[in-house]
Design goal:
By secondary structure, the protein is an all-alpha fold. Helix content is 72%, strand content 0%. The longest helix has 34 residues. This is Permease.
């Protein structure tokens, strides 16, 4: 119908014209004090939303689980080239590859505009395509001007290429429709999404702030905006978050390639939030209220005794894989030896009382006893081997200057409680929030693609390795994993594989690795992973040899009961705390936590300047982390 073609062409023109708003907004930001910092925060969050909620999910939808590998490759590949080629050249090259990938993605946008009239909610799809081009145009302009000595004409050329790619997608929809839905395109989209995440999370894509030649006297040191100025990047990020939710989340609430990921993320957040709120409180109070008593007790004796104390210290604490990491970080900050701290980190989420009690009816008393013994052995092994190695290296390179002041602390108990809350829900949360979100998002992306039932058909010993690896990135608490494992055992999963998942699932995830890297360095994180996998696989194989035939307890139905009002309220409160942290640090400061490392200096020379004076820089408030809930 002619009317349809005219309407589609109008939408195509609008989607291309929307790109031009990016340079206009950038031009305006250069002429208004504070607008540049505000816009920088907006761009960072908007581009992250584009990558995480549009480009990567589309790649996963088209290519399946291999797309997740492509995302990881895109995320880490530039870092590998930095060491050989040099960071500045690598950053510039990565930015240009990302821009080419965004031009390719624009081709799919053009196809979406051309085919939108065939969808029931065609107008919503058209406007979604048009509106998300505004942050795209702004991000392109932002990134090109930051890539080396690039000029405005180069940025305009890239925008013209994206516009031409959009038009080409519109024109050639009928010819390339089948190819556009293929796995090759999905892998390319996922790889570009990973590169885009690397560019933004490493502080790239940020042009220099303009020089404002004010004629008025500067002796007042900008008092007229000094209180608001440090918050401008964060406020821009908050607006960007709203745009992301509107453009990329709201349209997929009922249908779309991101629905399953969003649903999984929300479920994980609901399960994690109560434990996280408890954990942040404990993490703050450990240092401010209890002082040096836990550190002195955990540090007594030799490595073996310290490891055992670390396990015992965590037994009464209601912490799962999400909540244990902030407390672990606080213990290390108080000078607790790595032997005790790592044993605490591994044992606490695996030996929770509720998980043990639930195991008895679902898995049987004998298997529950084996589960407890194996978890105990694993924690002692990791604490003694990895922790002992770290202690011989000299432990974590942390600032313990505050310890002397803590010994003569004369504050009242209410003052200590208030200070503890500020530390736990401020300093600790600022450090761990990004890693928590990374862990939740990674689990949300991976979990729907894990076909656990098909894995039960593997050889029993192959199952052990498969389920040990599956448990590494997945966000799951020991209690929540128990019914799932009971069902899988009933379907033929070997007991060793079941234990492998119960060991790695609660004790490891992206958050755990990230914080160990922050505290002790990258080598320590790799050593932790290698030791965990080696010990878990060995223990799982041993269990299969000793218990080849095993029948679980009562039949278990793995289902999600309705979440309690406490869980929902906790998720809302936790989300609010994350938003406050984002505003306080700014998006670049918030993301900078992901690349802090302990043990050595972070050897990147890219720009981590935060155009805001948040209370503590990443180096001043080192992170702590966490992940799930009972």
């Amino acid at each position: 119908m002619p009317e349809v073609h005219v309407h589609s062409e109008t939408m195509l023109i609008a989607s291309i014209a929307a790109l031009a708003l990016g340079p206009v907004l950038h031009w305006l930001s250069e002429r208004a004090r504070g607008a540049f910092a505000f816009l920088d925060g907006f761009v960072v969050v908007a581009v992250l939303g584009l990558a995480l909620l549009e480009i990567v999910p589309l790649g996963v939808q088209l290519a399946g689980w291999p797309a997740i590998v492509a995302v990881v490759v895109g995320l880490i590949l530039p870092g590998l080239f930095e060491r050989r080629v040099g960071s500045k050249r690598t950053h510039a090259a990565t930015s240009w590859v990302v821009l080419a990938g965004m031009a390719f993605h624009a081709f799919t946008d053009g196809m979406a505009v051309a085919g939108s009239h065939t969808h029931a909610d065609s107008h919503a799809m058209e406007w979604a395509v048009i509106l998300h081009r505004v942050p795209v145009g702004l991000a392109v302009w932002w990134m090109v001007l930051s890539a080396g000595d690039s000029k405005r004409w180069a940025a305009a050329l890239v925008l013209a290429l994206i516009a031409a790619s959009t038009a080409a997608g519109y024109v050639f929809t009928d010819f390339v429709g089948a190819f556009e839905q293929g796995p090759t395109v999905g892998l390319l989209e996922a790889f570009v999404g990973g590169l885009l995440l690397h560019v933004v999370s490493h502080g790239l894509g940020k042009p220099k702030a303009p020089d404002h030649d004010h004629d008025h006297d500067h002796d007042h040191d900008h008092d007229h905006g000094s209180k608001l100025a440090p918050l401008l990047p964060g406020l821009g990020g908050l607006v960007g978050l709203g745009v992301v939710l509107w453009l990329f989340v709201y349209p997929h609430l009922d249908e779309g390639h991101g629905r399953e990921t969003l649903t999984t993320f929300w479920e994980l957040l609901l399960e994690s939030a109560p434990a996280l709120l408890i954990a942040y409180g404990i993490a703050g109070l450990l240092g401010e209220v209890l002082g040096e008593a836990p550190a002195r007790w955990l540090g007594r004796g030799r490595a073996g005794g310290q490891t055992l104390r670390g396990v015992l210290f965590g037994l009464p604490l209601p912490l799962c894989s999400c909540g244990v990491v902030p407390v672990y970080r606080s213990l290390v900050n108080r000078g607790v030896p790595a032997t005790a701290a790592l044993a605490f980190l591994v044992a606490t989420p695996e030996l929770g009382l509720d998980a043990v009690l639930l195991s008895v009816p679902l898995l049987g008393a004998n298997f529950t006893l084996v589960r407890v013994i194996v978890a105990f052995i694993l924690a002692l092994t990791v604490g003694w081997l990895v922790g002992g190695w770290l202690e011989r290296k000299g432990g974590a390179k942390l600032d313990h200057a505050h310890e002397g002041a803590a010994k003569v602390d004369e504050r009242s108990l209410p003052a200590k409680l208030v200070a503890g809350m500020r530390v736990g829900y401020g300093t600790v949360l600022d450090s761990t929030g990004p890693w928590i979100l990374v862990g939740l998002l990674l689990a949300a992306f991976v979990q729907p693609w894990v076909d656990a039932e098909s894995l039960t058909r593997l050889n029993p010993f192959a199952q052990v390795g498969a389920f040990a690896i599956i448990g590494l990135p997945i966000y799951v608490c020991a209690t929540g994993a128990t019914p799932l494992v009971a069902v899988l055992i009933a379907k033929g999963l070997s007991p060793g594989a079941a234990l492998a998942f119960l060991l790695t699932g609660p004790a490891t995830n992206a958050t755990t690795f990230g914080v160990i890297e922050q505290v002790h360095g990258r080598k320590a994180a790799f050593a932790f992973v290698a030791t965990m996998i080696g010990a878990v696989v060995s223990l799982g194989v041993l269990v299969n040899l000793l218990l080849p035939e095993f029948a679980g307890g009562a039949a278990a139905a793995h289902h999600h009961a309705g979440h309690s009002p406490i869980a929902i309220a906790s998720a809302v409160i936790l989300g609010g705390l994350f938003v406050v942290s984002l505003v306080r640090q700014g998006p670049r400061g918030f993301l900078g936590r992901l690349w802090e490392q302990g043990g050595h200096d972070h050897d990147h020379d890219h720009d981590h300047d935060h155009d805001h004076d948040h209370a503590a820089s990443p180096s001043e408030t080192k992170p702590e982390s966490s992940c799930c809930s009972h």
